[in-house]
Each structure stands twice: as C-alpha cells, then as structure tokens.
Amino acid sequence: MHTETSLHPFFAPLGIAVIGASQDPTKLGYGLARNLVQSNYQGVVHFINPKAGRLFGRPVLPSILDAPDPVDLAILLIPASAIPQALHDCGQRSVKAAIIGSGGFRETGPEGAQLEADCLRIARSYQMRLIGPNCIGLLDTHLPMDATFLPPPGPLPGDVAFISHSGAICAAVIDWARGQSFGLSRLVSLGNQADVSETDVLSPVADDPFTRVLTLYLEGVSDGARFVSEAGRITRQKPIIALKVGRFASGQRAVASHTGALAGQDRGFNAAFRRAGVIRAETSEEMFDWARALAWCPPPAGRSVAVLTNAGGPGVTASDALEANGMHLAELSDATRLALGAALPPAASLYNPVDMLASASPEQYALCLRILLDDPGVHAVMAILPPPPMYTAGAVAKAVIPVIHSAEKPVVFALMGERLIQEAVEHLRAARVPEYRFPERAASALAMLARRAEYLASADEPKQVCCGDAREQTSLILAGYRASPHQPGAFLPVETLERILTAYGIRTPASRLAVTAEQAAGIAPQIGFPVALKIDSPDILHKSDVDGVLLNLRDQAGVIQGFNQIMDRARFIEPPVKITGVHVQAMADAGQDVIIGAVQDQQFGPLVMFGSGGTEVEGLKDVAFALAPMTQEEADYLLVSTWAGRKLQGFRNMPPVDRPGVLDALSRVAQLAADFPELAEIEINPLRVLPAGQGAIALDSRARLMT
Amino acid sequence: MHTETSLHPFFAPLGIAVIGASQDPTKLGYGLARNLVQSNYQGVVHFINPKAGRLFGRPVLPSILDAPDPVDLAILLIPASAIPQALHDCGQRSVKAAIIGSGGFRETGPEGAQLEADCLRIARSYQMRLIGPNCIGLLDTHLPMDATFLPPPGPLPGDVAFISHSGAICAAVIDWARGQSFGLSRLVSLGNQADVSETDVLSPVADDPFTRVLTLYLEGVSDGARFVSEAGRITRQKPIIALKVGRFASGQRAVASHTGALAGQDRGFNAAFRRAGVIRAETSEEMFDWARALAWCPPPAGRSVAVLTNAGGPGVTASDALEANGMHLAELSDATRLALGAALPPAASLYNPVDMLASASPEQYALCLRILLDDPGVHAVMAILPPPPMYTAGAVAKAVIPVIHSAEKPVVFALMGERLIQEAVEHLRAARVPEYRFPERAASALAMLARRAEYLASADEPKQVCCGDAREQTSLILAGYRASPHQPGAFLPVETLERILTAYGIRTPASRLAVTAEQAAGIAPQIGFPVALKIDSPDILHKSDVDGVLLNLRDQAGVIQGFNQIMDRARFIEPPVKITGVHVQAMADAGQDVIIGAVQDQQFGPLVMFGSGGTEVEGLKDVAFALAPMTQEEADYLLVSTWAGRKLQGFRNMPPVDRPGVLDALSRVAQLAADFPELAEIEINPLRVLPAGQGAIALDSRARLMT
Could you tell me the end-to-end alpha-carbon distance of chain B, in angstroms, rounded to an integer? Predict the structure, then answer.
C-alpha cells in the first residue's frame, strides 16, 4: 500500500522531543515522558523544558533548538498560547511532524479556533504535519512506543489497531482491552484534526505488518470521497470496522423529494461504508468482538456452521443466534455422523448441534472438533463450553487448540461462565482463538467472518454506464435552463427534465402541455387514447397531493372534463400556486411501479435510492440507498433488500417484469447524478417496469438544481 | 400472591433427605451433600445411602425410611433404574416433594420416557410433587440453601431469581454471575418437567421477598394460557424477563391464509409476552443487564434522559444509543443550566449531554448529578465515566452514591474501561447502582426501565366486545355447516361466513351468487351498479391469484362480459378446481384497505393479526399480532406498529378514515376467534375502512375449521 511519506515520522520516529516534559507527576508532560521511557521506545528521546534539570535519568534540555540529531517528531504538551512559538522552534530544528496534545483550541470557542488556524499556518510554512491539537497522542505496541500521557498500564501487544476521534474513548478502550487481555497494535487519537485526519492515518496504520484489523471510532469523516477511496483500497487487504456515532444528528437541509426526505439519518454513511467494504458496528463491544474474529480466523467458505456442545440448552441458543445472524446449521455427512457415533456415548446427539453430553472429555472435544472440521459441508464451527461437570474447561481448551491451529476453517468458542472458565479463556486468547461469553456473540462474530469472506470474493468496480454524449447534451440543456428566467431551487420544467432523461437513455411517455381544455382534447388523439392528465406547476411538490393527476381518460369528452376538474381543484390550493397548464400523457402498459431517486449527500456526493414508490414512499420506507455510480453488487443489493425489488420477479398474480430494465434505469439515474453534482435531487416516481424485455418508463419525474 | 401450597417444601423445607449422598467426590451425590452443608442450610439434613458411614461429619442412613422427622423434601441422585423404588420409599415416609437430579429418562429415548412416566405415576399415587428429572436442583441464597450439585462457589445473595429449562445454562449463569459480582436470590433448574413446570414455579419464586426480578430461560411453555395468566398476575408486582429460545424452529403446519403464513416464527410468544407483561430479551447479557436496572432503580416518570459526562465522545455515543432505544435527551431548564454553570469551568457544555470536561472532580460529579436530578424535565440520568485523568473513578463513585440513593429517579452508570474503573464498579454494585461497560448497554437498560414504568401505568383487561347472541347464532350456523356435506378443512361457503360476520356485527357488502352470466346480469341492478364480480370456489386460496376478481362493472353488458371472462380463465387453472359460480357484489365507497386475520396458535390459542392487506401481505410483512380477545393497549399497538394503522389518520392525499371503526372490527374478529377455537383461520382481506363515522366493510373474507 502507498503511504504518504510525510506521516512516517509519526509512526517510525528516529528521535522524539517531548516539549513540556515535566517533573511534576500531575502534569501531562510527566505522563508522556514516563510512558515513552517505560514503553521501551528504542529511538532517541529528548525532554524539553526551560526549567531544564533531569527526568527519568535523562537530561532536560531548555529548548528543542539544543537537541542533537536525530529528532523528527515533536510532542507538545505546553499551554495553548505557547504552542505557536514552539512550532516555530520545531520548524527551525527541521522537525517535520508534531503532535499537539494540549487543549485550549477550537473546542473552546472562536479564539481557540483562531489559535488553531495560526498553528496550522505555522506548521505548513515549515512543511510540518500536525496531529491534534487536543488529543492524547499515539502508540505502537510492537515498535514499541507509547506516546500518550495516559496512566499505565498501556495496552498489550496485539493485532488490532484503533483510530479515534475521541481521546476519552481511547483511554477507555486501552483500559478495557487490558482488562480483557485483548491486545492492540497501534492506537491514534486524532483530536481536533487541524491537519491530519482519520483518512490520512488509514494507510500508515494499515501498512503496519502487525495490524491485522483496523477499528475506528468516528464522529464523521473529513472528506467523504477520499475516505471511501482510501478505505476501499485498504479493506481489500485488511478489514476495517467503524463505530460511527452521531447517527441521529440529522443533517438538516431543505429537501423537496421523497428521496431527500428519506436520505437523512445516516444513509450516506451506510452507503459509503458498503462501497468501501467498511464494516459498521453498532456498539463498541460488537466492534471488538468482530475484530478478534477477523484478526485471528481464516475466512469461511460459506455460511454452514457446526455447533459442538456438551449440553442441549446452549446448543439451542446457538442455533437461534446463528439463524438470527443469517448463518445456518450445516447438515452433517453420514461419514461425519458415523465417526461422531464411534467417539461418543449412545445418548449423544449426532445431528447438528452435536451434543456430546455433560460427560464430554477434553479428548472427545478435540476428536469431535476434528471430525466436524473434516466434513466438507461444514464451513465453520462454534464450540460451546459451559463449566464441564467432570473436567476443567482449561483442559478442554488445551486439547482443542492444536486441532484449531491445524484447521483452515474458523472455530470460535462460547465459553459460558466466568471463574470456572477463566483458565480456558487464557489458553484460547494466547492461542488466538476467539472466545465469547455467550453463544449470541460468537454467532455474530461467525457471521462477520462470512460477510468478510463474501466481500473479498466479490470485486467489482462502479460501472460507467452512459452514455455517449449524454453528459454533453445535458450540459447544454442545463445551460439553456440557467440562461432562461427561472426561480432558483424550483423544479426543472417537465420538458427540460424529459430531455435530460432521454439523453441518459431513460424512457418517458409521449406527453404535451395543454393550457386550455380544448387544446388538451386536441392533443389527446395525437398521443393516442387512453391518456393521463397531470397538472403542471413549478410550485407543486407532489401532484397527487393536490389531486392533480387523472388516469385512463378514454375520449375527448373525458379529457375536457378532466382538464376542467384539475383546474377547478387547483384554484383551492393554499397558498395559491402558479399553474402552467396540464400535461396530456400517454398511458403506459401494465407493470410494476417503483421509485428511483438521487440526492447529493453532503459527505459522500451522489446517493441513489430505489424502492416502493407511489405516494406512501415515506410511510412504507421500503427503500435502500447506494453511492452513485454503482457497482453491480450495490445495484443487486438495492433490489434484494427491498420488497419492491424482490417482487420484480413476480409474486402471486403479479407477473414478473423486466428486472434488467430496472437495473439499467437505476444505473442511468446514478450516472446522471454522478455527472451533475449540481442536480440537488432527481426522482422518478413511478418508474413503470414493463414485462420482461420491454424495459421501464419514467411515468413521472422531478429534479431541481442546488440553490 | 397465591402459591400452590404443594410446592412449599421445595422452597422452605424443614428437612431434606439426599438419596444417593456419596463419599466419592466424583459423584453428584457428593457435590449436593457438600453444597447443602456449605451453604449453611439451617434445616435438618439426612444423607441416605445403603453403604451408610459418615459424610461431612454426619451419619449416613441406609434408607429414607430410617430418617427421623422432619423430612419433607427428598433429592434423588441415584441411577435412573433405582428411582421408582426410591420414590415409593419417599412416599411411604410421607415426603411430599422430590427433586430427581439424575438423568437417564425421557432425554435418552422411549425407554427412558416410560421410566419417567412410571415415576410420575408413583409420585402422584402419594400426592408427591416432582422437580426434574435430569436437572441440577435449586438454590436460595437468602434462606440459605444450595440444593444443586454444581462445583463451588455458588452465587452471591442478590435480588434476581433465575428459572431455567437448561441445567447447563444454570451452571454457566451461576459462574458468570459470581464473576460479575452479580447476586441471585433463587435458582430453579427444571429438567424434563415430568411434573412441575416453569409456570408452576413462577408464583413460589415471585413470593420470595428477596426476589425483585424473575429471569427465565425458556425452551417453551407447558400450558400457554396458564403461563399468560400466572405471569401476567406476577408482572403487576415484579418484572419477569424471558430469554425464549427455539425462535426459528417453526411450528410447521398447513396454513391457508396470509395470517397463518405470517403467524409462524414465534409471533405467538411475542403476543403472549406482551399480554403478560413479560419482557423478552434477545441475549443472555441483555437479560441480566435489564434485570439489574429493574431490581435496583425506581421507575422513571418518562423517557427524557440527562447525560452527564467528562468527555465529548462518550456523550455522543450515549445520545445515539438513547435515541436508538426510543429515549430522548431531556431539555434542561434555565435554572439547571445556571446552576451547572456555577459549578463548572467556562468551557464546559451546559447543554445535554452535560460535558464537565476531563478535569471533573468527584465533587463536581456529585453536585452536577444532583442538579440534573432536581430538574423536573429530567426523568433519568446516565452518568458516564471513562477513567478520569486527574482523579480515581472509585472516588467519583463514592461521591455520587449518596446523591443517587436520595433521588427518586433512576441513575445508571457507563463505566468505560476495566482496570482503572474496577474500584468504581465495586462501589456501585455494593450500592445497587446499575453500571455497564459501554453507554449502549446503559441506554438499553434505561429504556427498559421506561417500558416497565409504562406497563405499570397501563392496566387494562381484555375486553369482551360482542355481541349479544352472536355466539349462539354462530354455533347454530356452524352446526348447520357441519351437518351439511362438506370437505374437511375447506373454506366455509361465502354465505356461511357472511352470516357469521354479520352475527358478530362485522359489515359485509350486499352480494349474491350467480351461476350463469344472465343470472349475474339480473342480480347486478338489484344490488346497484357499479358491481364487483368474484369467482366462488372452495378450492381457490386467493381469488386474485387466478384473476378471479373484476371490479367496477357499470352495466349489464359489462357484467355478462366479466362473468364469461372469469369463467373462461378459470378453465385454465391447474390443477382443475370446482367452480361454484360468481358472486355479484356491491362496490364499496373509497377508503383505505387493511387486513384483519385470526389463527389459533398451538401454544396460546387465538391470535389476531392486523396490517397492510391486498395481495402483497406476505411480501410487505407490515403486520402485527396480539392475543385475542385484546386489551385496548394491544389494539392500539397493532395500529401504531404498522404503517397500515398509522396511515388511517390520513397521509398526503389519502384522507383520514374511521380508526374507531377499525378497532371495532378488530375486536369483533378477535372475539369471534376467541369464542370459536374450532375456527382454524379467519381472514378479512381487504377490510375497506371508510371515512370517519362510516365504519368499515369486509370486502372479502375466508375462514375454515380445524381439520
């Protein structure tokens, strides 16, 4: 992987200057100096403090300007007001990387923000990169280097890296992980991110050969597109799990479409994570549960799990939990059952879950586990171990570890209990076998392994689908629209949008605007009966809300009557709206109706929506989102995760319709949204999907430009 | 509460005989004798073994017949084959309660099942109650009495009882709880339930004054109706939390309606738990997380929570988690903010979450907590404590405990970390303040407290709604149907079902059967145009599946053409079906369509369903279930938890319709299902709900009797 070399000094410094190193144990500068020394960092350490003296057996220098080579990383723990001068000193000493641990910047208000901007300016003037301010630093347990000021003990060496927007969460995670005997590889606290962001550190952390899984605590991302591209590249090699908070802080802004209304609430993040292969955890425990499994287990070849237990109850719990997590119980082969039967007492259950009974010995655990792992229909095993009545759990753990290490399938343990299983916990952790207190969490970890394996097996790229000169034509159409008088933020005129859709290869029905009933009656036969009438107004959000749509008019009399009816009703709309006329439109053949929409997400750009359309979109919420343009996997996801998509293949008396036609229309709308970020919202509702081979028609659509 | 007195000896024995007490430490009879003695049980203990001798300083008697008074509970840990004779001995010694710990019964096959039946017969002949066989026994930490054979240590005394269908889960829970310093009050392992069931022990366990919360591990219930009634009575006093497994083991049986197809997958259990006020946990950890909060906290007056933290990140996590759990952040009063401002540094955040900054002292935690608890808009507080950089977490815990104890609002703690917060954990546990490692779990516990408070505030009973002589009339109608020739399990004839619905006060449209097109054309004007035509056949499950419905026919020519069209199409149905004719039916006015159904659940009897109807019911899955007949709360739940119910109040251009009319129809269907358990399935699809005040009409319906 490629890493920007300017971040190297943060992760492999030759010499570190601790500016503000202090002899006072209540100061952060003391804690950092202590951790650096105690963590056994092998590079050169310079303590800097105008008071000079000695600290941890080393001299304290009055200024960084006095520090001899090498010194490529400075860590600043002095009052905020003194930071700018210290950065100048660092710059003059040719230091290219600085961590500002001190607070007192943007987080305190406008003055602090100004100070932070000053610091960034100074750093840039020396080509110096900054982590922080207002962070607890970083550490690497393998280098080793603990450049945080947290109270000891630091984390154990491990395989999982943690990158965090919150320093307090870092402190909690280090302490919690230590208590769980769960090791970390690297940890980075990002603070205010004046310069270096979560996206910047992804590559340097992923490059660490000791890091097998990256975990992130995110409060947002600095640059959506860059995050997706960086993370997406990394997840092909190493899993990334993110705990993204702020889910319910809705990005409030005016929206005029169903798509816009539904796109809030974090849909953009979900779509971006899906694209980038980033696994989203809902809770911190889930994140680290999954991280252990992903760090230590080979990928399973499928979702069939064998459960090995010494008691019935936990086996049932495990079966439930596996089903709930989208896994299923493997069907064991006859050979497997025969082998199990030879190894177990007659009353044991040889079907999955395999219940060896309470008398199961360590040897039986090991033997049966090997038998299950040898069954080609078994992709993974969950072994369950409540405190065994006759043996110690520790002895069972010791017996199974060689079997697990020689297998190429994942095995996870549900060690149920606490004290009586403690020895087993320690054996398994030391052997890098994931163990969980309850089968539910073990099942969730297995499901994540399966998901990861499926992700690695899929490898498609977003497709450019359109569309010759579609983009050029649309540029011209939009230029024309902008040049003509129009209200900012209003919907594009129907004709304009129809031309754009046509340019992108999306079919629309024949349609013409009538301003009088007579004109409508004249147009109708040219279009061909039956026709639909639709009110046309730049001010009306949803035509059916004002009863502005009439369908299936079969003759001229009906058209005249319908026209007048629509216009009569429109007079009562409050507040009054401008009515441009009524569209006379060809009726489409029977089929299934869906909605396709696109909005520009503030973080991640164009986002496309698919689902059940009509007027109840926002009530039914049968919709799904993906980044635009889409990969094939994403397009499929939109269709399989919605009822609207699933029923395209037919349901009861509903005949199957043109699924490829929907996928095609979806990709075209996605491409349009990606090509024209100035289109704030596009929505086709309904898209009528016709029988197989006949494609789909955008029966009604709207779009507006950014204001 | 009422307890069946025959179970008293299990929970308050005066003297216990351990039959099979053994000097061999590898025997269960040794473990049980040890636990009984070491648990400091104050009653008389008799050890029984033909080998005689001494055990734990006491004599071993050769037979229970030799045991002097008092002896009212026998615990049997001898080989299965010896149990019948031992039970005879117990009966002759006037023992009225026996726990059979030994396995070798029903769980091993038909022979064991026979032996189990023999044991039950013997016990009954002496009016003796049985717990087990194949169980680990029971314990009471307050009596005290440990009548299990599990390896020590047993659980700490506590407030939460645990009743379990799995002995292995008991062992795991005891060990886990001990490791978590989490106390139990009583524990009952039920084993094979030859006699005493989970429902039988609810009352005796709830009667224990030390038990504040009951937790259950259930693999099923023995008698659904009795469980609902017993549990429902208890939950008015003490919460019950159940972990019900076997969720995905679908109760396979033939169903012919949408309702039947959707009613599988554990819907009956959910409806029964809702009725009984039993809280359903998805995981073991969730169950005990909730149990602690329910045991130790007062009920909150609402769902507004204040979050008190010393760092921003965990505050955001907490806000997210509260929202995700249906709670919301309290808006703090001006007075509260003023008081907080006086207590905290200027950079602190005085809005909710209240961020006191990393410098927060134990005194500030205590003071700010008191300020928040004094705010009338705050119903509960979540305090967050990552390892504080300047103080110990233990000092914070000590400072806040008096504040929490003097408050009448719940306070839960998110103690983030492990080693550095261990002292705080111990203080809070000893003070009965619920603490969790992560804000997500603390939020879930607060939500459960709110739900419990809401449950206690609601107190309605299932309503008998109908309906004069509805039941009598329907009995006659069904008797007539049974007396006439009919195919078992077929749908009731349309006319029969219409008469039943009419008896129960459910409106149906005017409708008559025609067997020729001419007859149909003659009926139509009598009913009044426009009319609908519907195929009539005992063999057709869903009429629209075979295009057997035509709507809105406006004249006789249309009716003739329609009749012929339906009959023509019907000829091609495979396999061929018997066509009785075509119904000519009045068209209903415009409104909203919903589905109402009822099925007989194997466990819990009549179950009523409500939701989005039409042909896509099973795809959209916008349905909810409740036991029939319903309480007002349950009827409301059906409407608010489905989109079909929510949109009854109007949505966009959809006008509001007669919500009370739907509730009325729902209760009537529920009553019908409850009155006639022989009705296997009833389904109205659609029920057309008319504008306010005009009620609802069953446009199409079907029902069939149990086969």
Answer: 40
H or E stretch including B600? Answer: strand B592-601
Query: Can you tell me the ipTM of this complex?
Result: 0.88
Structure confidence by residue, pLDDT tens digits, A382-440:
999 998 878 999 999 999 999 999 999 999 999 998 888 999 999 999 999 999 988 99
Can you tell me the distance from the alpha carbon of A628 to that of A607, in angstroms, rounded to the nearest whole number? 5
Say if residues A516 and A566 touch (Cβ distance below 8 Å).
no
- Radius of gyration from C-alpha coordinates of chain B: 32
Quote the radius of gyration of chain A (alpha carbons, Å): 32
What per-residue confidence (pLDDT) applies to B252?
A: 40
* B372 contact partners, CB below 8 Å, separation of at least 6: B306, B308, B332, B336, B340, B354, B378, B381
CA separation for the pair B476, B49 (Å, rounded) = 65
Q: What one-character-per-residue DSSP string does B366-388 give?
A: HHHHHHHHH-TT--EEEEEE---
The C-alpha atoms of residue A580 and residue A588 are separated, in whole angstroms, by 24
SS3 B235: helix
CA-to-CA distance for B65 and B174, rounded, in angstroms? 34
Question: Does the global pTM surpass 0.95?
Answer: no
Q: Please judge whether B313 and A245 are an interchain contact, meaning their C-beta atoms are less than 8 angstroms apart.
A: yes
- For residues A9 and A16, the answer to whether their CB atoms sit within 8 Å is no
Exposed/middle/buried for residue B479 (C-beta within 10 Å: 0-12, 13-18, 19+): exposed
Q: In angstroms, rounded to a whole number, what is the distance separating the alpha carbons of residues A609 and A601?
A: 12
Which residues have a Cβ under 8 Å from the Cβ of B109 and sit 6 or more positions away?
Answer: A347
DSSP codes joined into one string, A187-227: EEE-TT-SS--HHHHHHHHHH-TT--EEEEEES--S-HHHH
Which of B418, B425, B612 is the best substitution to test chain A (most A C-beta atoms within 10 A)? B418
- Name the A residues in 230-289 with CB < 8 Å from any B CB: 243, 245-249, 282-285
CA A605 to mean position of chain CA atoms: 15
Q: Give the strand pairing for A531-536 and A511-514.
A: unpaired
CB atoms inside a 10 Å sphere around CB B430: 11
**pLDDT of A625-684, one tens digit each?**
999 999 888 999 999 999 999 999 998 878 899 999 999 999 999 999 999 999 999 999
The SS3 of residue A641 is: coil
- Give dist(CA B231, CA B210) in Å, integer: 18
Q: Following DSSP, what letter does each residue of A51-95 receive, concatenated?
A: T--EETTEEEES-GGGPPSP--EEEE-S-GGGHHHHHHHHHHTT-
Return the amino acid letter for A360: A
Interface of A with B in 382-441 (CB under 8 A): 386-387, 389-390, 416-422, 437-438, 440-441
DSSP category for residue A525: H
How far apart are the C-alpha atoms of B119 and B103, rounded to whole Å? 13
Burial class (CB in 10 A: 0-12, 13-18, 19+), B454: middle
Nearest to A540 by CA among A498, A508, A511, A570: A570
H helices present in A361-408, as ranges? 362-374, 393-406
Q: What domains can you pick out in chain A, each with its CATH number?
A: 5-211 (3.40.50.720), 291-457 (3.40.50.261), 510-587 (3.30.1490.20)
Integer Cα distance of A496 and A477 in angstroms: 7
What distance in Å separates the CA atoms of residue A186 and residue A658, rounded to the nearest whole number?
A: 50
Phi, psi at B434, each rounded to 5° = -65, 135
The C-alpha atoms of residue B555 and residue A321 are separated, in whole angstroms, by 59
Interface test with A, best of B317, B355, B551, B594 (most A CBs within 10 A): B317
CA distance A104 to chain B (A): 9
Query: Which of helix, strand or coil describes residue B560?
Result: helix
Dist. CA B357–CA B354, nearest whole Å: 9
Calpha distance A390→B149 (Å, rounded): 12
